[in-house]
Design brief:
This protein is of the alpha/beta class. The chain has helices at 13-22, 40-47, 65-75, 88-93, 165-172, 192-214, and strands spanning 4-7, 26-30, 55-60, 79-82, 98-104, 122-127, 154-156, 176-179, 184-186, 189-190. It has one domain: Alpha-Beta Barrel (TIM Barrel). It starts with a strand and ends with a helix.
């Protein structure tokens, strides 16, 4: 299986174009409190560099339905990523497919995702850090996830970078990997060399997994 690559927290059209050139399958803009936050006008400029067939994602924390509708319509978002305490009802009513973030601490109860079954397009696992909803650069212990929801594609985030993304893919075989701080020179500024190295590491891990299955 080919692991999809999502580069998130992009704040410039130049960085968006570099992510696309490196082979990213999706580009994300943060529309919530964060060092990487952009306005709708800024997000429109960022996403102007994203061609068809590369997904456009908006990242939110506890938005209203009206906020989602405005962003989806104005930015032509392919899906929305909800990183807060959004109830299942909001996911069901959202004007675009939803990737719901599940924050992982020292343990994970697979039942915690059950309320979202059938209402979201994907689950995104990120590291739990008190008071921060993402972009922390902190890794959770992938090997401790012995049971995963099988009813939705899994996006994996949480401290991924070019050095460890291969290990993460081999451990969990996620549908997609999500990186932000792991390819930055400073918050919100992507290092194009690291972006290239990240996508190359993903493809190398995919090749290893294919050979393992085929052998």
């Amino acid at each position: 299986m080919r692991t999809r690559v999502k580069i998130c927290g992009i704040r410039s059209a130049e960085d968006a174009a570099a992510a696309v050139d490196a082979g990213a399958d999706a580009v994300g803009v943060v529309l919530a409190p964060s060092p990487r936050r952009v306005t709708l006008d800024q997000a429109a400029d960022v996403l102007s560099a994203v061609p068809p067939l590369v997904s456009r994602i908006g990242v939110f924390v506890d938005p209203s339905l009206e906020e989602l509708a405005e962003a989806v319509a104005r930015l032509r978002l392919d899906y929305v990523q909800l990183c807060g305490d959004e109830p299942p009802e909001l996911c069901e009513q959202a004007p675009a497919p939803v990737a719901k973030v599940i924050h992982i601490g020292t343990t994970f109860d697979v039942q915690s995702a059950e309320p979202y079954r059938g209402l979201v397009a994907a689950l995104l696992f990120d590291t739990h850090v008190t008071g921060i909803r993402g972009g922390t650069g902190k890794v959770f212990t992938w090997q401790d996830l012995h049971e995963l929801p099988a009813w939705a594609p899994l996006f994996l985030a949480g401290g991924l970078d070019p050095r460890n993304v291969g290990e993460a893919i081999r451990a969990l075989r996620p549908y997609a990997v999500d990186v932000s701080s792991g390819v930055e020179s400073s918050p919100g500024h992507k290092d194009h060399g690291r972006v290239q190295a990240f996508t190359a590491a993903v493809r190398a891990a995919d090749s290893d997994c294919y050979l393992e299955v085929s052998s």
